[in-house]
Design brief:
10 strands
């Protein structure tokens, strides 16, 4: 599922374009990933002026989407190429038990 995002795949690369101020994409449900797998690896190229990305997550015991269950990281603004980011989701105490689903969103500064 996605909101305010359109995408194409070419050469094994998923290219997403935002069409609004609150874009996000959601993983499949029931990932059943143990929270012991605390690192999330994301490879992306940020063509925007804002560097912040937020990953939300739900667990089997906390199935509701909210900011308490998220981690934020900075990316390179207006990047000329792709970069790989390794995010330690375990810094959030709510990253525990079984991870059910993740969502990625771009955060815009006002």
């Amino acid at each position: 599922m996605a909101n305010q995002i359109s995408g194409t795949v070419s050469g094994g690369i998923l290219t997403l374009r935002s069409s609004g101020t609150a874009p996000y994409m959601v993983s499949a449900d029931n990932l059943n990933s143990l929270a012991a797998n605390r690192y999330v690896r994301v490879r992306l190229k940020n063509n925007a002026n804002d560097p912040m990305v937020q990953i939300f997550f739900t667990t089997t015991t906390q199935p509701t989407w909210d900011a308490k269950s998220s981690v934020t990281f900075a990316t390179k603004e207006n990047a000329s190429g792709y970069s790989t980011y390794v995010i330690d989701s375990g810094v959030n105490a709510n990253w525990s038990g079984t991870i059910k689903q993740t969502a990625r969103t771009v955060m815009f500064r006002s």
